[in-house]
Amino acid sequence: MRFPFLRICLAATSLAIAAPSTHCLAQAVPLTRGTVITEETIGVPLTRVGSVAIARNGTLAAVLTPGPQLMVIRGTGKPLLFSRAGGGPGEVRTPGPMGWRGDSLWVGDASLGRVTLFTTSGKLVRTIPVQVPGSPILLADGGTAVIPMARVTVDEQKPAIEKIQRVAGARVQATLLSLLKRYRAFSVAIGTSHMVGQQPFDDFPLWAAFNDGSGFVVVKRPAVAPGRPGFTVERYSAQGKLVFTRRYPFVPTPLTSADVEAAVSGFVSGVPKDAEAAARTHASEAVYRPKYLPTVTRVVAGEGGAIWLAREATQARQLRWTLLDSRGAVVGDFLVPAGFEGRTGTATALWGVERDEDDVPRIVEWRVPARRP
Question: What's the first-to-final CA gap in the chain, in angstroms?
């Protein structure tokens, strides 16, 4: 699907395909709210929604807390809750990445060192042991891999090599990707303790695994780059082979004092009142301040090769997402509420998590509008 009625041009140059592609847009198009899954829909209290994965046939799966529990829902049908916390057959302890292999749902669990497959009715299919550190995932060919677990470090200048490795049990078979990643920690002293998190305006590379196991996508997004500004998207197969690399020019968005203030306020929001002023001062001093906002802030590797990119996190009430097709061509730019966190998607919809006025999470589908005649 393309949107030819949009007019101002954005070019994407492909190194895998010689001819450049051009997408014209006048403004981002609002997505249309679709399915909403709430506490009432599910019938249990919710405090957190973890991984979310959409299958080719539209079946949705998610990790829910408390529990953890696993949920599967087909279309407008009734959600099915199954599994429970534990280490026995069919149980989960720290469910992380999840996805689909045909009609089977797979769930990686780093604490238990395994990938578990379930039917859509919640029945255990089989368990695949993975004894290599990291978050285990299932690949499209039936093999397994481990991906790095999220972390930050207080040494902001220290480079780290993250490896995505193909494994069989306790044996590493091959390194599929090696990513040089620089972490900038956001460390704030509060009395005798420290609050540590990720810098809000960091520009290290982003990456994600497709939940059908077909490969990986890497986004290189320097906030300041010499010459013409641009970010790069690379797609790799499940064997670690480069499928395409494309560069996307963009107009840089300057980082403002309002952006910094909003980030600091969010960081100290849970600090006791008597320590808030000092924490705010320390946090403001600790913020890494590039000249421009990172142009991509989140990547979702969707079903069928669709790639959704969350763009600059400004103070606007809506956030722009760019949709790429399986070859990296720009399909369009779209808008969703700024508080929405994209988790999975397809060529026609973006699924993720929002919080209501009581700070209770809900799963929301945002649909690409029908093409104009």
Answer: 12
- The token duo for 103 is 């009609």
Which phi-psi region, left, alpha or beta, contains residue 148 (left: φ > 0; alpha: ψ -120 to 50)?
Answer: beta
Q: What is the pLDDT of residue 179?
A: 84
The residue type at 80: L
Place of tokens 């930050």: 152
CB atoms within 10 A of CB 248: 23
Per-residue H/E/C for 133-189:
CCEEEECCCCCEEEECCCCCCCCCCCEEEEEEEEEEECEEEEEEEEEEEECCEEEEE
Taking the C-alpha atoms of residue 64 and residue 362, their distance in angstroms, rounded to an integer, is 10
pLDDT at 315: 81
Q: What tens digit of pLDDT does each residue of 302-346 get?
A: 999 999 999 998 888 899 999 999 999 999 999 999 999 999 999
Burial of 259 (0-12, 13-18, 19+ CB in 10 A): buried
Name the region of 276 (left: φ>0; alpha: ψ -120 to 50; beta: rest): alpha
CA angle 140, 167, 124 (to 5 degrees): 60
Amino acid at 84: R
Comparing 21-30, 69-78, 199-208, which segment has the lowest mean pLDDT?
21-30
Give the pLDDT of residue 24. Answer: 33
Q: Rounded to whole angstroms, what are the CA distances from 253 to 27, 315, 342?
A: 16, 12, 22
